[in-house]
Design goal:
elongated; mainly alpha
Length: 99
């Protein structure tokens, strides 16, 4: 079980980093004319849900094992990442009028 948790933790942090990186790409890189392009769909359909699923599963495992330090650290990292993305989104909207 420990190997699976460590592997899932690595996958979570890698996917979170990729998700944030793709979020910071310009909108033209993720969007086609009216819908997302392949990168946008990959980000929206695959990366975001898998990252959220990994976060929830790892949180459940850590809660059951009473590993609260790791749980709090992962939750703080996840919340900071989300807040940075939201802040960047607001910045881009105020700067350009669109993402």
């Amino acid at each position: 079980m420990n190997f699976i948790r460590k592997f899932s933790e690595q996958i979570f942090y890698i996917l979170l980093a990729i998700t944030i990186f793709i979020f910071f790409l310009p909108g033209e890189a993720k969007m086609a004319v009216y819908t997302p392009n392949y990168l946008g769909w990959f980000w929206f359909i695959f990366l975001i849900p898998i990252t959220l699923i990994c976060f929830v599963l790892l949180s459940i495992i850590d809660f059951k094992q009473k590993n609260y330090k790791v749980l709090i650290f992962r939750t703080v990292v996840f919340i900071v990442a989300v807040l940075i993305c939201i802040g960047f989104g607001f910045y881009m909207v105020n700067k350009n009028g669109h993402l």
